[in-house]
Every structure is written in C-alpha cells, then in structure tokens.
Design brief:
Blueprint (H helix, E strand, L loop, with lengths): L17 E5 L17 H11 L12 H7 L8 H9 L5 H8 L1 E5 H5 L5 E2 L17 H27 L81 H4 L17 E13 L4 E12 L10 E4 L3 E10 L14 E5 L5 E6 L10 E11 L6 E8 L6 E8 L20 E9 L4 E4 L3 E8 L2 E6 L12 E4 L2 E2 L2 H4 L6 E6 L8 H18 L7 E7 L6 E2 L4 E5 L15 H17 L7 E2 L5 H19 L5 H16 L15 H6 L3 H18 L1 H14 L4 E2 L1 H15 L8 H9 L5 E8 L2 E8 L14 E4 L1 E3 L11 E4 L6 E3 L13 E3 L8 E4 L1 H9 L6 H16 L6 H7 L9 H18 L5 H19 L9 H16 L3 H16 L11 H11 L2 H13 L3 H11 L5 H10 L12 H9 L4 H20 L5 H9 L6 H17 L2 H23 L1 H14 L6
Parallel strand pairs: 4-13, 19-20, 20-22, 23-24, 25-32
Antiparallel strand pairs: 1-2, 3-8, 4-5, 5-10, 6-9, 7-10, 8-9, 11-12, 13-16, 14-17, 15-16, 18-19, 21-22, 25-26, 26-30, 27-29, 28-31
Helix pairs in contact: 2-6, 9-10, 9-11, 10-11, 11-14, 12-14, 12-21, 14-15, 15-16, 19-20, 19-21, 22-23, 22-34, 23-25, 24-25, 25-27, 26-27, 27-29, 28-30, 29-30, 29-31, 30-31, 31-33, 32-33
Length: 1162
C-alpha cells in the first residue's frame, strides 16, 4: 500500500501511544525497496487500489483514528471505545515478528521523522502459517466478526457525523455526494487523468521559461469516496484538538529563521486548487518544473520547498527531459521529509545524479492547505447579500510577503521567479473566478463544480500570485472599451458597482502616463481591480489582479454618500501606486526583502509624479514635503529605528520592514536622487533599469550604477562622485541628520549631527553624504541641483565662502534645503532664525512650512528653546489661507497636545491655540460652498479640526447642531463630506449615548466604505467610559460588524482619546491572548495597537505598566508583542524625558505669551 507523506502536525489524533506501519520483508540477498522494473503491473495495481486522495487525508478512514476522535460521553459505545483505548498487547515483540510490522513511536511519528521512498512503502505477505479450526469455532468466529464489523461501522458513522476531522485537513468531509461542498479528488496538475477536461494551450504574452518535453503519462488514481455530512454554509465547525495539542499554547507565533536554500530554481508551476469555504481547506496539486542551479553552489543540494500548515501526499519526481539514448526510467528515486518546525518540505535525490549539472525535473505532489480567516494566504471573508441580507462568502488571497507557502508548496522567495499556469475548481454557487491572467477555458468538472483554466503568467515571484472565487460582478468597463489594451475591469459587490467610475477614470489616465514615462507598454492583456470586503493592506499589486480594501477603491457619486476631497485624493494615489508596481516590483523585482524600499519607494514616488501630472490642482508634490517627511522622520528619530536596508533574517523581520521607513523614507530618498541627477537622467535611468532587468531581479547597486552613468552623462553629477558613494550612508544606517548653520562674516559654516530623541547626543558619530542647496534674499538659484556636498565624517565642517556680499548681514535671509529635496532638518543660529521670522511672509511656500516643522521638532529634541517655534506658530494667525503651513504644524502640535492634555499647562496652551485658530475658522466656518477648489476644501476641514479640538465654541456648538439635525432626519445627512470627520468626532465627544448609538447604527447601515471609516474613528471620540469599553470589546466580536482590517483603527481611536487611553490599555492587557488569536500575525495589528498606546504615556508608572504587559506576553509566547513593547518603551522614555526637561520651560513661554497678548484663558 502507498503510505502518503503527511504533515505530522496535521495528523488525526492517535488512539494509542504508538502506531504500527507495515514495512517490506525481504531475504538477506534482496534489497529493501523493490525496483519498479520488477513488476510494473503489480506496482500500478497496488498504487491504484489504495492511493491516498486529496479529499481524504491519510488516516482519516482508519477505524482506530476515528474512534480516537470520538467525543467523551459520545454515545452507547463509550465503554467499548474506552476498552479499545486501554487495551495493551502483552508481547508486542512477537506480534511484530509474526506479522512483519515495524514499531514506530508516536513521538517519532508526530515529530515528522517518518520517511518515504518515492512516497511509497511496499507490503508482501510472509510465509503461510496457521492452525486447525473446528466448524463450531469457525461459526462463532464469523458471528463475532460480523458483530465487530457492525460496531466499527456504527462508531465510524457517529464519529464522522460530528465532523471530528482536524480543521487543517478537512478534505475527509468533502465528497461528491454533497454538491454544496467542495471535495472530490483532484487530478495532478500537469499530468492529466483520464476523463478530465482538457486544458487548452494558451501562449503567454511574455517570455517564459524554455519548454520542456512532455512527461510520460501516469496511471490514474482511483479513490474510494467517504460519505460525511457537510456543515451548512457559513457554519464552520470548531474542532477540538487532541489532548497533546490542546495542552500547548495556541497563541504562540514562532519567529522563524528564513533560510535561503540554493541549488535548484523553479521554471514553471502548474497549480490546480480547489478552495472550500465550508471546510476551511484547499485541496490541490502542483507540478513544478525545476532546474538545477550551480551559479551559487556547486554541491549536491536537496530540493527544499517552503510550506506553512500544508499537508503533502503523493510526491513524485520525474525527469522533464530524458537524454537521448538513455535507458534510465524517467521517474527518480528520492527520500522526502518535512524540515525543521515543518516550515519546509525536503526532497533528497540520489547522490549518483550529482554529476549532472544540467538537470531539469518535474516535481509533482498533492496537498491540503488551510483557508484562513486571518486575511493571510488563501482566506475566506463574507459580506451581507444585497438581496436576501444573508451572509455571502468569498475566497480571496494575500500572499505578500511570505504567505504563498500557506496556500501551496513553493519556492517562496522574490528571486525565485517562474511562470504560473493556474486552474481553479469552484462550486457552481460561485459565479466567477479570477486570477492573474485571463481565463482561457471553463468546463464542467463534476456535478455542481466548474474548472476554470487561466493563461500562463509572465515570470513572476510567488507573492504576486492571486485568485478570487466569489459572486462579485464586474463594472462592465471592459465591454465598453473592448478595443483598448489592457482591458480594465473593476469587480465588487452588486451594491457598489456605481462607486467604481472614479477608479476606472484614474486607471485610464495613469496607464498612458506610466507607459510613456517608462517607455515600456503594460505587459498583460488585462488588469482586474477587485474590492475585497476585508483586506489587510490598503491594496496589493498582484500582477493583473490588483486587490483593494473597499475604502481604497470605491468613491460614491451619490451626494448623500459623497467622499471628501481627502478621500478622493487618497484613492487616486493608491491606484497610481499599485499601477506603478506593474513595472517596479512586478516586471523588475528586488532580489530580497532587504531592498523592499526600492519597489515601495519607487511606486510611492511615481504615484506622486503621476498624480501631479493628472491633477496639478492637487499640488501633491508640495504635500509630499509635509506628509511623507512626517511619516518617515517620526519613525526615524530615536534608537529603535532601523536602516532602510537591513539584514532580513526572520519572518518577523519581513513583516517589520513594511513600515514608514521603507515607504516614506524610500520615497524621500528617491526624490532626493531625482534632484541630484536631474529629471532627464532619472527618467533615462528608470527606463534603462526596467529594460535591462525585465522579468528578472535587481538590487540597489544595479540602480546606483545606472544612475551614476546617466547623471555623469547629463553633467548633473560630478565626475568624482558616484551615486553609491552618496547613497550608502543613507541606506545602511538609521536616522537622519541635522545641518547646523552658522554665519561667519560673509561665509557660511555648516556642521552635521544625527537628529536624535529625546535629546542630541554628541557622542553619536553617524554622518551622511548631504547635498546642500541654499538661497538668500540676494541669490535665487532657480533649481534644486546641489551646489555643495557635506562628504560624511571626514569633514567636521563645510565652509561656503562669500554667501553674503558684506560682513554685516544680520538682516539678510538664508535658507537651506530648497523645496525640502534633502532628507534632513536645518538648525540656524539665532541671527538667522530672527531674520527668517522677520521676513517670513516673503519666503517660498514650501520653505515656510519646512521652517515651522523643523522648529517644532528641533525644540522637542532640545536643539532649540520653545520660544522660536511658538513665534512661528503665531504666523498662522495671519496666514489663514496657507494650507501647507497649517498641514506642517499638525505633527508638532499633536505631540504637544498629547503630552500636555493631562497637565496644568494645557489650559494655557489651549487658550493660545484657540487665539491663533480663531481668525481662520471665523473665515471658513463649517459651511462649505459648492464652488471651492480641492485645496480649499481640504484646508477648511483642517482649520475646523483645530478649532473644535481646542474647544472653540463656535465650532463645537455648530458641529453638535448639524449632527442632531441629521439624527432628526436620518434620510438626509446635512453634513458635507469634507467636514464629516470633525463634526462626527466633536458631536460624539460633546454628546452622550444617543449620539454614539446613532453613529454606530449608521456604521452598520451605510454602504460607503469611506463613511464607515469616518464613523469608526468618531466612535472612539466619546467621553463615556462604558461606551469606550463596549467599543473595544466589539473589535474582537465577529458579529459586531467591525472588520478585522479595521481593528487597529478602532483601537487607535480609543487610545488617542485622553479618557479612553487607560481603558484601551486595560482592554489590551486583559484580552491580549484573545486579540492575538483573533487577528493572527499577518498585519501586525497587535503591534499597531501597542504603538498607539504610547502617545499619552509620559510618567514612570507607565513604564511599569508596559513591563508587566511584556512579562504577560512572554508567558504567552507572543514574541512579536515583546518586540513591539520594546519599541514602545523607547517612545515612553522619550516622553518622560521631554516632560522632565521641556515641559516647564514651554509652560513659562506660554504663560508669557498669553499675558503679553492679553489672551482670554476661557
């Protein structure tokens, strides 16, 4: 019989402390494994008779295994089952000897040590033996046998009826007898079984790996079906784990070392997969064409596939190309085994083959993998049906960064690119299936099931593979624009089809821009954009099948549900970002995750360029100088920061690197590079890079080389400089510099040091290669190309001669870092700060915003005293229309709000800010005219946010009035889209439970995703503790309507509330185990929650609270939480330092200003 090799951790619970596995009995002269040539027919018959099926995990048909799964007290056979379990053989040694069984300990079996030869073990009977039996004994024995058979059938029926099969391998309860559930055996992909629908060839639109010879046909596998009751749709049974597993801590998320195995590389995957919502499992088979790769290692290495909770059976290895005149059988001998922690599946080939340096193989296997509910890998999600209001389920995928291994065994690395031919089997109750490429063929697979075959993809990494199975509908745009290439369609639920027009317009505008900028046409024949109800990231750039969360794609056009200007800009930029990835990331891919910033930085920076080209009225490049700098510098300012490119070794490293350092800092550094080499050289280098490395991998040194060539060719980069020299200091070390500016007669003296919180550290020797640009009131440069360089630590200071025309220049203005092209802050001497303040209104728009932002953050780190930023803040009093200046003030002001909110000085600070904000709010108010520009609409919302935050009564009272007007007539919302966030939050903060419950009801009923996010944030604004506690508990209740993708958003809304902060901490500490289990480890939800807790923590007892939380997490094995707490502790230490060193001086400055300007405190 064939003993299928299965993931040991997914085995059905064992009945006894050991199992017996049959082995081959041979004479001394006979080899242990019988060669295939001995009896091909016999071997084929044995294989066909007892092969393990995809729909039936190994061991699921065993009566003993079934009995062991029976629940305690589970029926009339309880006593019989107990006797079976307690039965012990007196002489196991003699039994083994007589029946030729090999004893295998349970520990050895569950530990993954059972090995197979070609996935098979052969059984031969021993010599005839026996004793004489009388007729009476024979009748009695027959009667007992019949009774035992009836008992066995009854036990099997009761056990299987209750669904006691491990959830990770639910294939045993999926049969063709229940067409509403997904489950008959699946043929092996690439090796077609008799009677299966053909897979018509479809030539890929792009270069693929070299074709291989067709492998020899294999005998079909016959499977005996097992009948079990299927759970109703949506009713996923909770399976009790065996005692040994239940005793373990299920919340532990191991931090696994990511080992890079060389020696083999994939060429082509033939993937056939049948995901089941009801069983929470996918049945599948994959054939991987593999070739030996001796470019990195020449030693004989095993084939190592990445897996995560995947059960593997029926492994076969054959030659893809049989040498001419070869007499060898195409099928190869091998040993297979799970690797350490079951994180890999290892296939060891015969060492006799080591001499073949050019070898191409076909590795075929069947598998059962999980359909998760944590938004990772292949996962299921649901939404209410528009017609019946019943729950509608769907299948989606999220394989980036390292979750393709959850779906199927693969080489799950970005540098292991291959072609993919994907086939999906779905129930006919799901009307559509999508994948990366267009569907080439659909056919009836079995009763109630359809098989969809898709065209072959270009070469791409596994993290870009994607598919959808659902009842979504398309927007119909591909039919209207059928002549356009690529065809573009947007898929969503029927209720939301009218919200897809804005996204379609953006796609059609961005694609021609990118094709022209890069000089390369889009490579795929179609692009599908899918709105997924519950989605971990904002969006994912899967090649040809881009997935989004609802709020990142859908823009309502109905006036009642209309989106704000901010949201429309956000949607446009997300779409631009994902489309840019079709070139940077998909066509050309970084070799490893340590260069993630390259693909994300390029996509983000190109999205700004594209949006600036399509909508110049958005002034998006100006927004970059405040938004991206805020995101990056905030995370890059203390000792917990990391280099933008660091050694990624573990799974936690991979997930950690998806942060603002990679995205925002990557964007800023590429923009800085653009300014250094100029627009023409940057564009030419981008084109050159994409053409040279199309369908391949690159690293940052490849980019540096190409940029250096084009920069020097254009004359913008000095011949004695290379881009690598400049950029290595920015890439390989964390943080960013402060350039200190000092006047020395007519010259300028520049020094650099690292900006570091909580205060400057003279002993830190970090230095950067800094491009210097500057202007004075006498010298206007006109471009952003650097004129001087600070060449790292070899130069203590840089002297720029004759900047001013005379030595007496105290009234002359000097400002550095034009248009904020460089990633650094500038700290001037007092003379320069005063000159800048005096001439503030005449300075360039970006420079004004930069000065205010730098002043606030330099004071936070004790480079300046707070009198300087406070005087710059007072410029807001007259600059009522300067949207960028107000935006620049927001990060620094928020830090002061959080640290003063529960201190006596907040009263004075609030009065000071209310005094500054009043003129702007009196001008804009909460009434929004219909003829304002995009920037004016955004600015009004920002001014109103400040006014209501500082309790300006004209803002708070009007906000409450408008919200209550909506409560009186729920069918007509009088609140304008751009003002919803501030009015909702203010009304709930000033109101009580009627407002809160009204808002929550609107959250449940609205169809607008952006509206849902606005309400979710506002629900955390209430000042009623019991409502905040209730709200937090709803984030781990699947029936509350709060999606997992929004859990961190809801928690942050409470944690950023001065009253809700302590409640949020208590909730996290009391429920951290449940939160970890509910959200999983895919999107760092717990880490985000912990980070949001620190904003109010500025006292010593807060440190002790965090330490207690860390100890509790350590007991639960939550390593990622421990790491997040370490990062949070640094922020708390910074806050404590600020409170002890800067609070009192700020308080004195505020009191002095309030007194001097006679500002009313109330």
């Amino acid at each position: 019989a064939i003993i299928s090799y299965t993931n040991p951790k997914l085995q059905i619970p064992l009945m006894a402390s050991a199992i017996y596995a049959p082995t081959t009995t041979t004479s001394a002269a006979t080899p242990t494994s019988v060669p295939a040539a001995t009896s091909k027919n016999a071997s084929a018959s044995a294989s066909a008779f007892a092969s393990a099926s995809l729909s039936s995990p190994p061991g699921s048909s065993s009566a003993a295994a079934g009995a062991s799964s029976a629940p305690p007290g589970g029926g009339p056979f309880q006593g019989f089952v107990a006797k079976l379990r307690s039965f012990k053989f007196d002489d196991t040694k003699n039994i083994r000897k007589r029946f030729h069984f090999d004893y295998i300990s349970k520990d050895r079996f569950l530990g993954g040590q059972l090995k197979t030869k070609n996935g098979q073990k052969y059984v031969f009977n021993g010599p005839p033996s026996g004793v004489y039996v009388s007729k009476a004994c024979l009748v009695i024995a027959a009667f007992i046998t019949v009774l035992a058979l009836l008992f066995t059938i009854a036990i099997t029926y009761f056990v299987t009826r209750q669904g006691f099969v491990p959830q990770e391998a639910r294939a045993g309860c999926i049969t063709a007898d229940h067409p509403d559930v997904n489950a008959t055996p699946i043929q092996t992909a690439g090796w077609m079984s008799a009677g299966s629908p053909p897979n018509p060839p479809a030539p890929p639109p792009t270069p693929t790996s070299a074709p291989s010879a067709t492998p020899p046909p294999l005998p079909p596998i016959v499977e005996q079906e097992k009948k079990m009751m299927a759970p109703p749709v949506g009713d996923i049974p909770v399976v009790k784990p065996p005692v040994e597993v239940a005793a373990e801590n299920t919340t532990k998320v191991p931090e696994r070392l990511l080992k890079l195995y060389e020696g083999w590389r994939p060429l082509h995957y033939h993937l056939l997969i049948e995901p089941s919502v009801e069983a929470s499992a996918s049945n599948g088979s994959v054939t991987i064409e593999i070739e030996r790769d001796v470019s990195k290692v020449t030693s004989w290495e095993p084939i190592v596939l990445d897996v995560h909770n995947v059960s593997i059976t029926n492994v076969r290895v054959v030659r893809a190309v049989v040498p001419i005149n070869s007499t060898d059988e195409p099928e190869l001998d091998f040993d297979s085994d799970y690797g350490e922690d079951n994180a890999t599946f290892v296939v060891n080939l015969d060492k006799a083959l080591a001499g073949e340096t050019e070898m191409r193989l076909l590795l075929s296997l069947d598998f059962v993998s999980q359909v998760t509910d944590t938004l990772q890998g292949v996962y299921k999600t649901s939404y209410p049906s528009a017609d019946s209001k019943e729950t509608e389920w769907m299948i989606s995928t999220q394989f980036s960064p390292i979750d393709a291994r959850r779906a199927f065994p693969c080489f799950d690395r970005p540098d292991m690119k291959a072609n993919f031919t994907i086939s999906i089997i779905r129930s006919t109750k799901y009307k559509m299936a999508l994948s990366n490429m267009p569907r080439s063929h659909s056919s009836r697979y079995r009763v109630g099931y359809v098989r969809d075959d898709f065209m072959t993809t270009p070469k791409m990494p596994t993290y870009l593979v994607a598919f959808i199975v659902s009842n979504m509908i398309d927007s119909g745009y591909s039919t209207l624009d059928s002549a356009m290439v690529p065809q573009v369609d947007i898929w969503t639920r029927p209720t939301f089809v009218d919200m897809t027009h804005y996204a379609y317009k953006m796609v059609r505008k961005f694609l021609p821009y990118y094709e022209d900028y890069f000089g390369i046409k889009n490579k795929l024949p179609k692009i599908d954009l899918v709105s997924v109800p519950d989605f971990g990231f904002g969006a994912m750039e899967n090649w040809g099948l881009i997935t989004f969360r609802d709020s990142a794609l859908l823009v309502p056009e109905d006036l009642e549900l209309a989106s704000s200007s901010e949201h429309m800009q956000y949607v446009a930029q997300i779409i631009a970002h994902e489309l840019a990835h079709q070139w940077f990331g998909n066509l050309v891919t970084p070799k490893w995750w340590d260069d993630l910033w390259l693909k994300e930085g390029f996509a983000c920076y190109m999205s700004y360029k594209a949006l600036e080209h399509i909508h110049p009225e958005f002034q998006i490049m100006d927004t970059l100088t405040t938004l991206e700098f805020k995101e990056s510098m905030q995370h890059d300012a203390d000792n917990t920061s990391h280099a933008i490119s660091f050694d990624v070794r573990t799974t936690n490293d991979v997930r950690r690197i998806f942060d603002p350092i990679s995205y925002s800092k990557g964007t800023i550094l590429l923009r800085m590079l653009n300014s250094i080499v100029g627009d023409e050289a940057f564009r030419a280098a981008s084109r050159d890079l994409l053409k040279r490395f199309a369908y391949e991998n690159m690293d940052r040194d490849d980019l540096w080389e190409i940029l250096t060539h084009h920069g020097q060719e254009q004359g913008t980069l000095p011949k004695d400089l290379s881009v690598k020299q400049i950029m290595d200091s920015w890439i390989t070390q964390p943080g960013y510099p402060v350039v200190n500016v000092e006047r020395r007669d007519a010259d300028l003296v520049l020094r650099q040091e690292r900006y570091l919180l909580p205060s400057r550290n003279p002993s830190d020797q970090s230095r950067w290669f800094i491009p210097i640009t500057f202007e004075t009131d006498e010298l206007h440069k006109g471009d952003d190309v650097p004129t001087h360089w600070m060449r790292s630590q070899d130069e203590e200071e840089l002297v720029v001669s004759n900047v001013f025309t005379q030595s007496s220049n105290t009234d002359n203005v000097i400002y550095l870092n034009l248009n904020r092209q460089g990633y650094y802050r500038v700290n001037y001497d007092l003379t320069s700060w005063l000159a800048l303040k005096k001439n503030f209104s005449t300075l360039p728009r970006i420079t004004r915003a930069q000065l205010l932002d730098d002043a606030l953050h330099l004071s936070q780190a004790e480079y300046l005293t707070y009198d300087i930023p406070l005087t710059f803040l007072m410029e807001l009093f007259t600059a009522v229309d300067d949207e960028l200046l107000w935006s620049a003030a927001k990060p620094g002001l928020n830090y002061l709000i959080y640290n003063l909110k529960r201190e006596p000085a907040y009263e004075t600070f609030r009065a000071f800010m209310k005094f500054i904000v009043r003129p702007a709010f009196d001008r804009y108010g909460l009434n929004e005219p219909d003829n304002e520009s995009h920037m004016q609409l955004k600015h009004r919302a920002l001014v109103a946010n400040f006014a209501c935050k500082f309790n300006y009564d004209r803002c708070t009272q009007v906000a409450q009035m408008k919200f209550r007007e909506w409560m009186r007539d729920v069918r007509k919302n009088p609140i304008k889209p751009n003002l919803k966030s501030v009015i909702y939050c203010t009304a709930l903060a000033e109101g009580s439970y009627p407002e809160w419950y009204f808002a929550y009801k609107q959250y449940k009923t609205t169809t607008s995703a952006s509206e849902k996010e606005e309400i979710l944030t506002s629900l955390g604004c209430t000042t009623k503790p019991w409502l905040l506690s209730k709200y937090l508990n709803m984030t781990i209740n699947p029936t509350s309507g709060i999606l997992k993708q929004d859990g961190a958003l809801a928690f942050r809304a409470v944690a950023s509330n001065a009253i809700g902060h302590e409640i949020a901490f208590d909730f996290l500490q009391s429920n951290i185990k449940e939160i970890a289990e509910y959200y999983g480890d895919g999107f760092s939800t717990l880490s985000e929650m912990i980070k949001s807790l620190t904003i109010y923590m500025n006292k010593d007892y807060h440190k002790h609270q965090l330490l207690e939380l860390a100890a509790h997490s350590r007991k639960l094995g939550l390593r990622a939480v421990e790491s997040a707490i370490d990062l949070a502790m640094e922020q708390v230490n910074n806050n404590i330092y600020w409170r002890s060193h800067s609070y009192h001086s700020l308080k004195n400055f505020l009191e002095g200003i309030v007194s001097e300007f006679h500002i009313n405190i109330f």
